[in-house]
Design a protein that fits this description.
By secondary structure, the protein is of the alpha+beta class. Helix content is 51%, strand content 14%. The longest helix has 42 residues.
């Protein structure tokens, strides 16, 4: 698996499009790097860039962007609502795929060293890359901000990790680190009061607030035995938060960094802010995502709010995300496009969904064309997906039947299973075509020498076995889908019986069509043990489907 890391530099410029375009161009010019998102904020005068790629090109792109920011951004003229200490304020690296945190830390130090030595900038390493424990917290590193940096650099305990301990008036200093995925998330309030917003922020953030005797605002600060302030922890772990006023929107926000969304999920943070705001006479009106978010975070939120509504959770992925967006109010301040904000959607290869992203009409026309693919295998997978979807539909409709509220969990469970099968089978629509194309590629290999002939034969056999394995997955999924159809025929709404039965026929057709593909691809593979094993397993699957489908259809006949 190719190593993949994400880089999320925050530049102290959010108002000048020419500067942002120049920074983006520096990143795009590095081969192997994909710029996913540029999220400027006018009030914060700060822009978050997000790009991904293999470690080496990502680090190269980060260095070029930091160098360009140093040339274009003058911190002496900068002001904004967000804390900052440099033109490139922070530049974290995040492991995405195939790379450990330890390896990511090594790349962060490599970048920091180069920035310090070649650009002459003071660099502090933070989070997982911190070389001094006290510097793991970014807020500690950035304390005093740009205005206090010159004095700070003169203190021995604040000597930078890389680069000179000298104040760079134009570019300030940079924090470079390695961390897990962080969600920058703001919740909107129906107030302009920063003091009231901060009260809510102190309620929810992990750090909490300074403990006071009596009145929480004017009371005497409580000290421990050593004379240090005592802190009352907030409601949420792994959450940093402050309140601020955003003139651009005319409202105050709770600005949060969710540093571990497996500990505190986005919807948990939102609900906590809602609860705190209500206690203080405020109301949450919506929220805002800065940068990108993992898909699962929105799915978790959507499922959470569906359950609160007493609705079935067996819905398509996109519908669950739409529920999350509306429930969290992510589209209050500006349109929210999941294709531009969800990291997995941005990383998707369009070729992986070449067929299933088509309209029904264009899929049918492409199937009818002179091209041999898509063919029977892809259509069989599509038939199975439609059969599974019909069972899911019956489950979702039954979950909403008046008087069946106590059965929502039962039907929701079947709907979830059916939706997962439908999505799997849809993926196999394109997989089948890719498997066929791999066989064609193998047949086109040269065979002039003995070695080429042997290599070609091996490639053809390997591709053929894979072209048998894909339709076998279709068969297994169709047979599994029959369980959902059976449950809905027996337990679902009587008025949807015909839908469930059509689902049975589609699942049966999908399995039979896939079995034909296995048998056709297995011809001439008598000497291949793996191919013969697949043929035997598929024969058993087909026999099981026939027995179960016939029995089920007979039971339906009696019902009718």
């Amino acid at each position: 698996m190719q190593q993949l890391i994400e880089c999320v530099p925050n530049f102290s410029e959010g108002r000048n499009p020419a500067v942002l375009d120049a920074l983006a161009e520096e990143i795009r010019r590095v081969e192997g790097v994909r710029l996913l998102d540029v999220d400027p904020g006018e009030a914060t005068n700060r822009t978050v860039f997000t790009f991904v790629g293999a470690p080496e090109p990502v680090v190269e792109a980060a260095f070029r962007a930091i160098k360009k920011a140093m040339a274009l951004i003058d911190m002496r003229k900068h002001s904004g609502a967000h804390p900052r200490m440099g033109a490139t304020d922070v530049c974290p690296l995040i492991p995405v795929r195939g790379i450990s945190m330890e390896e990511t830390v090594a790349w962060a130090h490599r970048l920091a060293k180069r920035v310090g030595e070649e650009l002459g900038l003071p660099v502090y390493c933070y989070e997982q890359a911190a070389q001094v424990p006290e510097r793991s917290n970014l807020a500690t590193v950035r304390a005093g901000e740009y205005e206090g940096l010159e004095k700070k650099l003169k203190q021995s305990q604040w000597a930078p990790d890389y680069g000179p301990a000298a104040f760079h008036a134009g570019a300030g200093a940079t924090a470079i680190g390695a961390r897990n995925f962080l969600v920058a998330y703001n919740v909107n309030l129906n107030t302009t009061s920063v003091r009231r917003a901060n009260s809510v922020a102190f309620d929810v953030r992990e750090k909490g607030r300074v403990k006071r005797e009596g009145n929480p605002i004017t009371g005497q600060t409580v000290l421990d035995a050593e004379g240090n302030q005592v802190w009352e922890p907030g409601m949420l772990k792994s959450v940093k938060a402050i309140g601020w006023y955003i003139e651009e929107y005319g409202l105050a926000q709770i600005s949060m960094n969710l540093t571990d969304i497996s500990t505190t999920k986005v919807h948990e943070a939102f609900d906590a802010v809602c609860a705190s705001a209500e206690r203080r006479g405020l109301r949450v009106t919506g929220s805002e995502l800065v940068g990108l978010i993992p898909k699962q975070a929105l799915l978790d939120a959507g499922l959470h709010y569906l359950k609160k509504q007493g609705r079935s959770t067996g819905l398509p992925e996109r519908e669950i995300i739409r529920i999350a967006v509306k429930s969290l109010g992510l589209d209050e301040l500006k349109p929210f496009d999941p294709d531009k904000k969800v990291i997995e959607y941005l990383l998707e290869d369009p070729n992986q969904k070449r067929l299933i992203s088509k309209t029904v009409e264009s899929f049918a026309f492409e199937t009818a064309s002179e091209s041999p693919a898509p063919g029977g295998g892809s259509v069989a997978a599509l038939a199975g997906a439609l059969g599974a979807s019909l069972g899911t539909m019956v489950a979702n409709l039954s979950a909403h039947k008046r008087g069946w509220d106590d059965r929502i969990e039962f039907f929701s469970g079947w709907a979830e299973r059916g939706q997962a099968l439908s999505e799997k089978l849809l993926g196999l629509v394109d997989e089948d075509t890719r498997a066929f194309e791999a066989i064609m590629d193998a047949f086109s290999m040269p065979k002039q020498s003995e070695w080429e002939t042997k290599t070609r034969k091996q490639a053809i056999e390997a591709a053929t076995v894979q072209a048998m394995r894909i339709p076998m997955e279709v068969m297994q999924s169709c047979l599994e889908g029959l369980e959902s159809a059976e449950a809905m025929i027996e337990e679902g709404m009587a008025s949807s019986l015909s839908d469930a039965v059509v689902g049975v026929w589609m699942l049966r057709a999908g399995l039979q069509g896939a079995y034909l593909n296995v048998k056709i691809n297995g011809k001439g593979m008598e000497s291949n043990a793996e191919a013969q094993t697949l043929l035997e397993e598929c024969k058993a699957l087909e026999a099981t489907m026939e027995i179960k489908a016939r029995e089920l259809l007979e039971r339906v006949g009696k019902k009718l």
